[in-house]
Amino acid sequence: MDRPLLGRLSARGCCSFSTLKAWLPILSWLPRYKLKWLQMDLLAGLTVGLMTVPQALAYAEVAGLPVQYGLYSAFMGGFIYTLLGTSKDVTLGPTAIMSLLCFSVVGGQPHRAVLLTLLCGLIQAGMALLRLGFLLDFISFPVIKGFTCAAAVTIGFGQVKNILGLQGIPHEFFLEVYYTFYKIPEARIGDAVLGLLCVALLVMLSFMKTSLSSEDAPTCSRVARKLVWTVATMRNALVVVAASFVAFSWNASGYPVFTVTGETSRGLPPFRPPPTSDTTANGTVVSFGEIVEGFGGALAVIPFMGLLESIAIAKAFASQNDYRIDANQELLAIGLTNIMGSFVSAYPVTGSFGRTAVNSQTGVYTPAGGIVTSVIVLLSLAFLMPAFYYIPKACLAAVIICAVAPMVDYRVVAKMWKIRKLDLLPFVVTFLMSFWQVQYGIVGGVAVSGALLLHNTARPPIKVSDHGVLVMELGSGLSFPATEYLSHMIHTQALQACPPRSVVLDCHHVSVIDYTVISELRDLLRQFSLREVQLVFSRLQLSVLEVLLAADLQGFRYTDSVEAALQMESKSLNGRL
């Protein structure tokens, strides 16, 4: 075989393997996997697994689904993300926000929740294949913060009824607030005491973990610090186990003073295609089209929020631990996780900030730690489901409240007020509208942010200075929404002055120009010519200059600097005199 052909084949093989590694990131780290990595991945996976099980049970309550659906949703992500994920830290599974969004759409109907998972996965995977990850950039930080703060308040207050053991509370937020306070006299003492004790214990353990990482933490032995950190990290599992033992003891004594989870489906979920129709309580069959129509705008909101939450987490930990992620590959990993999850009765999942933080702090080396977490969840489904009967609902409510409380970031309001007050507008709109309908809050916030963005595009800052000749410096780009504003400024400042004045247009910030702008400039040049004054362009970027020259504008003049333009206009003025 000749050498050139051999070289081409070798290069083609190398290119193909690089492409394969881009689609299957596991190939970039698996060939160099080490024993030390295995030890740390096992430790991290075990730690996160013990955290995942109680959280998954609790988040299923938020989604309005039987608790086993939380576990059904918690194991597929570990396997898929190990193959396709680009972050060593991210863990996929049920989260508070996705559970709330799911409940707002399906209202606690398992079959529809599973179908929603499939559709979300297809949308997310489709976005990844079409490289549409850039669309997430249009959801601004104030919108995200407004939504997460409102979601935390909604989720947290929604668990107060379970802390107090109240029944018959509606799910709409404002009615929920009213009836929770109205029914306080009906609170069950056992649930209230147990729930408040669980909250206090979780807060104390969380504070202990935080104090260990502070600079003024008390000095103690390394073993003691490790023990305290381990106990604090597994606080959810420990509290759930302790509360379940208390509930079991009281029930065994003939005093069922706690509201418990009750009977749950046992064993692993069957692997089967998600349902494409549903049957109501009165026997009416709801078709696939009717279900999708009922989902409405949620089919845009939920996939977007899932992607946004997971990619934001991945980027944060990639920056912290000094590695890079591929956003579109992350979209594919989340999309396939939801697609495959729908075959095991999961509801929509995304990256979890809390579990990812624990994964990172435990020292995970590769995404393989997620496999260990998934195995723990599967073992829980296979062998521990009967024990979940005695988990008090007040205890799960305490886990949820403590998990979402840090999401209420009141300090961000002061920061936005200090940096740019106008950013508070989309924040407030999103925050308030989310109490009406969660998806309306996101859509409203994005709409307000979009309006502000369009306003900035249509009204670019224009700095006007007088050097005998007016110099107008465009502070940003120039696109078709801004043409009317620029034309108005030139007419009022120069053409309608008495006598009319020449203008030097400083365009060094302009990188793109479109047909509408060209048409408006042609008209302006004609107006200047009729009034026997000049419109001179300066500091044009090469790409813009090429477009203007190709447009063959009559009377078009340009210079490399503002000073040269002023000199040109001065000579022209002297010539006319």
Automatic annotation (TrEMBL):
The organism's lineage?
Eukaryota, Metazoa, Chordata, Craniata, Vertebrata
What is the recorded function of this protein according to its Swiss-Prot or TrEMBL entry? Sodium-independent anion exchanger mediating bicarbonate, chloride, sulfate and oxalate transport. Exhibits sodium-independent sulfate anion transporter activity that may cooperate with SLC26A2 to mediate DIDS-sensitive sulfate uptake into high endothelial venules endothelial cells (HEVEC). In the kidney, mediates chloride-bicarbonate exchange, facilitating V-ATPase-mediated acid secretion. May function as a chloride channel, playing an important role in moderating chloride homeostasis and neuronal activity in the cerebellum.
Keyword Transport in the entry? The reply is yes
Q: Which family does it belong to?
A: Belongs to the SLC26A/SulP transporter (TC 2.A.53) family.
Tell me the ranges covered by the STAS domain, including all copies.
468-553
> Pfam families given for it?
STAS (PF01740), Sulfate_transp (PF00916)
The record ties this protein, via NCBIfam families, to: sulP
Membrane-topology annotation of the record: Multi-pass membrane protein
The record's listing under PROSITE patterns reads: SLC26A, STAS
Where it sits in the cell: the answer is: Apical cell membrane; Basolateral cell membrane; Lysosome membrane
| Alphabetical list of PANTHER family matching this protein | SULFATE TRANSPORTER
Kindly provide the name given to this protein in its UniProt entry: Sodium-independent sulfate anion transporter
Q: Which GO terms describe its cellular component?
A: apical plasma membrane; basolateral plasma membrane; lysosomal membrane
Q: Which InterPro entries match?
A: S04_transporter_CS (IPR018045), SLC26A/SulP_dom (IPR011547), SLC26A/SulP_fam (IPR001902), STAS_dom (IPR002645), STAS_dom_sf (IPR036513)
Q: Which reaction does it catalyse?
A: sulfate(in) + H(+)(in) = sulfate(out) + H(+)(out); hydrogencarbonate(in) + chloride(out) = hydrogencarbonate(out) + chloride(in); oxalate(in) + chloride(out) = oxalate(out) + chloride(in)
Molecular function in Gene Ontology: antiporter activity; monoatomic anion transmembrane transporter activity; secondary active sulfate transmembrane transporter activity
Record key words, sorted: Anion exchange, Cell membrane, Ion transport, Lysosome, Membrane, Transmembrane, Transmembrane helix, Transport
The residues that cross the membrane are 42-60, 66-84, 91-108, 114-134, 146-169, 189-207, 227-250, 295-318, 330-349, 369-389, 396-414, 434-454
Q: Which Gene3D superfamilies match?
A: STAS domain
